[in-house]
Amino acid sequence: MSVHINAKKGDFAKVLLMPGDPVRATWIAHTFLKNYKEVCDVRGMLGYTGYTKNGKRISVMASGMGQPSIGIYSYELFSQYNVETIIRVGTCGAFQKYINTKDIIIAQTASTDFNWMTDFNLQEGSYSAGATYDVLEAAVHESRKSKAKVHIGNIFSEGRFYHFTENDKEPWWKPWEKIGVLGCEMESYALYCNAALLKKKALGMFTVSDHFQKPGILSSEERAKGLRNMIEIAIRVAEKFA
Ligand code: HPA
Fold first, then answer.
1. Within 13 A of 237's CA, how many CA atoms are on the CB side?
2. Residue 122: burial class (beta carbons within 10 Å; 0-12, 13-18, 19+)
3. What is the rounded radius of gyration, in angstroms, for the C-alpha atoms of the chain?
4. Which of 207, 209, 217 for mutating ligand 1's site (highest number of atoms within 8 Å of CB)?
């Protein structure tokens, strides 16, 4: 057991899919894995290990919301359970007009307004958090085979969902949109930093659930369907790292 995970050593596979929501972790295990078993449940942060239809052993565990939460779970999984690769499978908001809800975004890099890296004692400069290249390459390759519309680039891992600094001139997200950032979520920056620190592998991919320049938000049914395309891609990627 680690501080926040009540699984036994060896309960997790080498590769793990990580949605934010525990209900979604259960749905992924139920829908995509055979012979799976629940391996942890502290604070309802459910984790499962099972086999893909091609017989590859993979795990799925929820991260909760935000960098502090995914920071805790990814650190313990990497450092105490020998998990080598974590693929975050979440949702995000989109900034760019050429992106639509239901599209998929793959985070080549993550930027943030959160102070995650202050603890790493960099004397000068700021850290550019990036996906691990071979996992990114596999995800790009697999996503090109799918019908889903996929965008690859920089995303903003925001430290707060609600922003109180908006002024009349420009909404808070506009400067990020101007420099080409695709959209925002709340976890990938910390995940990428933990993977870098511990010499592990990480990738974040997201279904676009809402848009900052277009009306409408995905219904739960559309969200589930969009998610299905993305999880199918993520499972094929995970199989390569199993
Ligand atoms: N902000 C942060 N996280 C999100 C969003 C958003 O707009 N949409 C889905 N996850």
1. 34
2. exposed
3. 17
4. 209
Cα(79)–Cα(90) distance, integer angstroms: 23
- Give catalytic residues, as residue numbers: 210
Task: Give the single-character DSSP code of 215.
Answer: -
Q: Whose CA is nearest to atom 10 of ligand 1?
A: 92
Partnered with residue 112 across adjacent β-strands are 157
pTM of the model: 0.96
User: Going by C-beta distance under 8 Å and a sequence separation of 6 or more, which residues neighbour residue 163?
Assistant: 172
> What's the CA dihedral at 236, 204, 162, 181 to 10 degrees?
-120
**Which pLDDT tens digit goes with each residue over 175-233?**
999 999 999 999 999 999 999 999 999 999 999 999 999 988 878 777 776 789 999 99
State the angle between helix axes of 22-32 and 220-240 in degrees (0 to 180), rounded to the nearest 10.
Answer: 60
Query: Which two structure tokens, joined as six digits, stand for 44?
Result: 């309802």
Quickly list DSSP for 26-90.
HHHHHHH-EEEEEEE-GGG--EEEEE-TT--EEEEE---SSHHHHHHHHHHHHHHS---EEEEEE
What's the rounded Cα separation, in Å, for the pair 187 and 66? 5
